[in-house]
Write a structure and sequence with these properties.
alpha+beta, Thrombin, subunit H, Pdz3 Domain, seven-stranded antiparallel beta sheet, 28 strands
Length: about 475
């Protein structure tokens, strides 16, 4: 009589419990879903949809590596002199490797922008070994996505985007790619976390996974157990350069929208609101009298932009955009970017403690817009005035011509100039630095140090614990909440 495999019995029991929970409406989430017996069938089905990508870049003369930083008296100078002279003017070809996946049987391939950035030639190698030249259809550096086109001799097997919102922490996933140029490689793991911000761009919302991802996996797909692409593998955290179980994938829902636009227009087309926002910290929330840190605080409004036309002001707290809650400052840019250009939406905001609604017509974000440098104009010097604000650790002065030139303060910025900061003070803890300009306190304009002193005295008598200041640093305005010293 054959022996019974206890592991198989336990897995069958788990499946039975799961089915019964579903049938009787019980909370099946309380029971762990069984791990797959094997990834073999799924991997064999998906491998043909994944490709290897090789790029070649030609470095110009003078960009080649060499011993150019040797000291003049170094004994190595003579040794490498002939080598340097021979190779200094010779161009050099550099090859990089990555991964991608087919999304259309006619030859459309998704990869990372950093895989093909600055490439002179792009070659795609299919799972069967066929190598094809690729053409760049479009790329989006902000989300690190790119779309390629090859002309295959026959229709290709394509992968399909799934709903990345349904990829929950703990779900099994597999990654397929070309690590270290070894060729098609399958690794497995789980979704480790969601909504990761790794400071790689303005729309960070990564899926974190412990499925081993290494150099060369960039641009490859992250599949769920149904064989749908739930992420595009893009980055790893690694002190050693190899996988330590912390990889990051662009969510499929974001990738799908960007890829569709690259397919139609060759570039990403995003909505634009025309505001600069910042995070609501606990101190800022206390200073504004808020119950929590939800929302996105408007620090600056672009003149002539959609927000300015709708009447949005500095200090407004945006809570809801087009029916979608704005949970924090990272949420709003993604919601606005995904909004159709030309659509008029409702924006709920909090202004000086009162909830209001405005209507905004979303415009197109133009990545080519640049702000012209501010030309310094002559300003008549005025007597300097220093006021020691011991409570905050600030020394303030007037904005005269010398001060503007020294700290490069734009002429349109008016307020009280920070000339010195005590590092062991509330201002020091908030990273104030000389050259900052306090332009508002509690939504009231500041013309000079006297205004700051007057506000402090008034607020101290009123028992206020937090001072909300709008501070300009190199022309960029930011709200700072300073806690007043006790007594």
């Amino acid at each position: 009589m054959r022996g019974v495999n206890s592991v198989q019995v336990w897995r069958q029991l788990q499946r039975a419990i799961f089915v019964l929970c579903i049938a009787f409406g019980l909370p099946a989430q309380a029971f762990a879903r069984p791990a797959p017996d094997s990834f073999s069938d799924l991997a064999n089905r998906l491998l043909p949809t994944v490709v290897n990508i090789a790029t070649t870049q030609t470095l110009k003369a003078g960009e080649t590596e060499g011993f150019t930083d040797l000291p003049p008296d170094s004994p190595l100078q003579e040794l490498f002199k002939d080598y340097l002279n021979k190779n200094r003017n010779a161009p050099r070809h550099v090859t990089a490797l990555g991964s991608g996946f087919v999304i259309d049987s006619t030859g459309l391939i998704v990869t990372n922008n950093h895989v093909i950035d600055d490439a002179d030639d792009i070659t795609v190698t299919l799972n069967d070994g066929t190598s094809l030249p690729a053409k760049l259809m479009g790329r989006d550096p902000k989300t690190d996505l790119a779309l390629l086109k090859v002309n295959p001799p026959k229709l290709l097997l394509a992968a399909h985007f799934g709903d990345s919102d349904k990829a929950h922490v703990g779900d099994w996933v597999i990654a397929i790619g070309n690590p270290f140029g070894l060729g098609s490689t399958v690794t497995a793991g789980i979704v480790s976390a969601r909504n990761r911000d790794i400071a790689s761009g303005p729309y960070d919302d990564f899926i974190q996974t412990d499925a081993p991802i290494n150099r060369g996996n960039s641009g490859g797909p992250l599949f769920d157990m149904d064989g749908n692409v739930v992420g595009v593998n893009s980055a790893i955290f690694s002190p050693s350069g190899g996988s330590v179980g912390i990889g990051f994938s662009i969510p499929a829902n974001m990738a799908r929208e960007v890829v569709d636009q690259l397919r139609q227009f060759g570039q990403a087309r995003r909505g634009w609101l025309g505001v600069r926002i910042q995070q609501v910290t606990s101190d800022i929330a206390e200073g504004l009298g808020l119950a929590g840190t939800q929302g996105a605080l408007v620090a600056d409004v672009t003149a002539g932009g959609p927000a300015a036309k709708a009447g949005i002001e500095n200090g407004d707290l945006i809570l809801d955009f087009d029916g979608k809650p704005v949970t924090d400052s990272r949420t709003l840019p993604r919601i606005v970017a995904d909004t159709a250009i030309g659509k008029t939406v409702n924006v709920d905001l909090l202004r000086k403690g009162k909830r209001e609604s405005v209507h905004v017509t979303v415009a197109k974000l133009d990545d080519g817009d640049t702000q012209a440098p501010v030309k310094a104009s002559k300003v008549m010097p005025v007597p300097k005035l220093n006021s020691k604000l011991a409570q905050l650790g600030l020394t303030l002065g007037l904005l005269d011509g010398d001060a503007r030139n020294k700290f490069h303060v734009p002429n349109e910025v008016q307020g009280a100039l920070v000339t010195d900061v005590d590092p062991n003070s509330p201002a020091g803890e908030k990273n104030f630095r000389p050259g900052d300009v306090i332009i508002e306190i509690e939504s009231q304009p500041v013309r000079g140090p006297d205004d700051v002193t007057r506000h402090l005295e008034t607020d101290a008598r009123a028992g206020r614990k937090i001072e909300m200041m709008l501070v300009s640093r190199e022309g960029v305005a930011t709200y700072v909440a300073l806690r007043l010293a006790e007594g």
